[in-house]
Write the structure tokens for this entry.
Amino acid sequence: MQKYDVIIIGAGAAGLMCAASAGYRGRNVLLLDHAKQAGKKILISGGGRCNFTNRKVEPNNFLCANPHFVKSALARYPSQQFIELVERHGVEYHERDHGQLFCNDSAKDIVKILMTECDWAGAKVQLRTEILAVTKKDDTFEVSTSNGDFSCESVVIATGGLSMPKLGATPFGYRVAEQFGLTVLPTRAGLVPFTWHSDAKQKFEQLSGIAVPSTITAQDGTQFSEALLFTHRGLSGPAILQISNYWQPGEAIDINLLPNQDLAELLEKQLQQTPKQSLKNALAQWLPKRLLEALFDETLLAKSLNQLIHAEREQICQQVHHWTILMNNTEGYRTAEVTLGGVDTDELSSKTFESKKIPGLYFIGEVIDVTGHLGGFNFSFAWSAGVACGQAC
Ligand SMILES: Cc1cc2nc3c(=O)[nH]c(=O)nc-3n(C[C@H](O)[C@H](O)[C@H](O)COP(=O)(O)OP(=O)(O)OC[C@H]3O[C@@H](n4cnc5c(N)ncnc54)[C@H](O)[C@@H]3O)c2cc1C
């Protein structure tokens, strides 16, 4: 049986980062993955350009049953350090809205950086390897695989969440946690589009492709101001993906279709200037006509501004600023960017990510109950957790 100091399972964002960090400490590291390629999610992320981090990463950008858990790792490896790593490798990047950083060229550059770092650190990456069992005898772990059996002092589980099973996502990490008696909090799809109820689908699917600025509020009061996109299946766009992390089935969402403007004031001004203008033409200055036709009755839209009674104007403003809609569900793990829930952080050290119950067993990245907002935060956490663990395992 081949011996290593550290075996990391999962060659994704967190696993690669951890392998390099542990390797640089002189640890003899083996990184295993069942996929043909390392960092598959990195490769497809950010539309192929990987939103690899954010200028400003703060604990309140994350959902976790223990909101303090992420603080230590984020403080020890802030986003600036990953930016400097990207710069050292000569990879060019640019900043988009809300401090999001993307590669100029391709997400492949990020995987290349991580693979190069693993190489320089002497960490061995072995792909196409099925993990059959992880067991512990005294102070030694045994990892049995389709390519032989290995022993080690430390095992790091970095197998990610359940989103995008087509890319090789499995519940492996949760099963290992349960096998060793660790609590796994219920999981659900996050950063995911919503689907229509059948009656709403009939009305709104024709709007597919329309994007508008919006502020969306979840039932718990959490708010995001970003673009809203109508799709054939339902609602998507950054604002919806963000709010999906805070949504539970059966809850309504409140959508402001004209954020930062006061429709009552706009209509009043318009009434003074062009009293005979139709409501439809007036509203079309601020919102797409097709959206107006789906939201309002044709006879109401045909009325001129001076024909509208006070109650009608109020109802129009309410509908635009507080469009309240009950969505059927999310698209689920098939298209979700992340998985909410996972290995309970109460089970882990926030400094090293080692299990409190099982010395030598570590969990990092998306497999644990930490989920970031949209905007490079999920990779940020993977880098920080990977480094924190790599310095300890
Ligand atoms: C479409 C999409 C776009 C995204 N875009 C962004 C973005 O731009 N910015 C951002 O911050 N986040 C983004 N994310 C989220 C981000 O990809 C994840 O949060 C991040 O990859 C989690 O890192 P991880 O290392 O924990 O898991 P992963 O990167 O998922 O890696 C897990 C690894 O474990 C392996 N594995 C799983 N099961 C087994 C098993 N049984 N045996 C062996 N190996 C196994 C997998 O093959 C994989 O290589 C995106 C996600 C998706 C799906």
The radius of gyration is 25 Å. The first strand starts at residue 2 and ends at 9.
